[in-house]
Amino acid sequence: MTLPPTRPAETAGTPETGAPINQWKTLDKDLKRIVQLEQAGQFVGRPLLSLGIALVFIVLAGVAASVIVGGTPNALVIVAAAAFGAYMALNIGANDVANNMGPAVGANALTMTGALAIAAVFETAGALIAGGDVVSTISGGIVDPASVAEAGIFVWAMMAALIAAAVWLNVATAIGAPVSTTHSIVGGVMGAGMVAAGLGAVNWPVMGQIAASWVISPVLGGVFAALFLAFIKHRLIDAEDKIAAARFWVPLLIGVMAAAFSAYLVLKGLRKLMEVDLPAALLIGLVFGVLTVFLTRPLVRRQSEGLENRKKSLKKLFGLPLVVSAALLSFAHGANDVANAVGPLAAIVHAVSDGDTAAKVSIPLWVMIIGAGGISFGLVLFGPKLIRMVGSEITKLNPMRAYCVALSAAITVIVASGLGLPVSSTHIAVGGIFGVGFYREWQAERRSRALGLIKGKPLPPEERKRRKLVRRAHFLTIGAAWVVTVPATAALSAAIFLGLRTLGN
């Protein structure tokens, strides 16, 4: 027996025209509206879900602190500081880590999911394995410790600095500006210190060096990145036999990367495990670099077999080194910056528990776990926005350009350490991206001028303006955010300190 059709009215025709009648038309419209509402709900609810998870993490940090220090006098102060420390760590993950992963994602060497996973693992590993177990509570001598020797005043100053830095990082992430975590903390400590102990308590020569780093860091990063890109263009991209040139130069470039990152990690990321000076770090880097060259030569030769003699083939050879460099940058960032982020929290715990202040204090393990966990959660929940901006909205990156940015970051830190210059890893990485973009603009301008001379007429100004390869809006926004970071966090911290001291009294 033949079964009747499921929707017979759809095939039946009208008596006049014979056209099919869809008796499910109204139902289909209603279902479509429901699907659209569900999609809209998911779009609106996703940020709320992230905020909810972040809030749960902050509450759990406070609960954990209450369990650990429950019997300590003024334990409520430590609980509040732990909650604000968790908030600070979340904002570091949302803002600062984008500089490590943005170039790799923008170059399509990593997916966003892969970048988030690698960064979360290596940031946490860097913080817990190699993070400094002792931190300067006054952020490198910004404020004279003797000027805030009273434990109560010291606690409120550190609390104000912590809150101000966290709020500023939150604002910077919202406007799409990668800023320096260290500079945020420095500004917070300076603002609270000035209100607590006066202008004379601030070490102004050190502040002058930090202000100079606003220019030094991005310029050095940009110059090194542009020089590496120029070298790759001259030796590889413009070579007649690109594959042969790649087999010779790519292992050497990877060796330079290995040497730079080895020295970088020894200097900045492994202070907890070993303490070495710059010459010893450079020697360690040289050994690792030479070994890497010998190990990667056969790998590059095997990977290059069958590739066509064109630029697109070269990009494939830089993909894996770029991923490794992003992971190493995340490890070093976790080791180096987490301690700065949780320094005020560690100082508050020490001052409340021991009743005194100190220029340097030990970081309890639970404090470091809050910092590491917060960075990972902040990265996964809120990091993609800034990762996309850094990786693809400033200028177009490919694996070779992104590789130059990562390499310049490591080398710039080493050079700055040798010269005794305070630099920001955030400023260096973003400066490297701008350096690559401006170098490409310069090359495009040269080609346009040469083409104009050949054809007998130059390009009109409108067309030359249209061919800009760096988005000026981001350049101005990020530059302004860098300059404003210390004054903004100082003013905010001063206001918060006054409020906290009033409430405390």
From TrEMBL:
Q: Which InterPro entries match?
A: Phos_transporter
- Write one Gene Ontology MF term: phosphate transmembrane transporter activity
Instruction: Tell me where the transmembrane regions lie.
Output: 48-69, 75-93, 105-131, 151-172, 184-204, 210-232, 244-266, 278-296, 317-335, 363-382, 402-419, 475-500
Q: Name one GO cellular component term.
A: membrane
Q: Where in the cell is it found?
A: Membrane
Q: Which UniProt keywords apply?
A: Membrane, Phosphate transport, Transmembrane, Transmembrane helix, Transport
Give me the ranges of the annotated region Disordered: 1-21
Query: In what way does this protein cross or attach to the membrane?
Result: Multi-pass membrane protein
- Record carries keyword Cell cycle: no
Is Transmembrane helix found in the keyword set?
yes
Q: Which GO terms describe its biological process?
A: phosphate ion transmembrane transport
Homology family: Belongs to the inorganic phosphate transporter (PiT) (TC 2.A.20) family.
Q: What is this protein called?
A: Phosphate transporter
The species this protein belongs to is Cereibacter sphaeroides (strain ATCC 17023 / DSM 158 / JCM 6121 / CCUG 31486 / LMG 2827 / NBRC 12203 / NCIMB 8253 / ATH 2.4.1.)
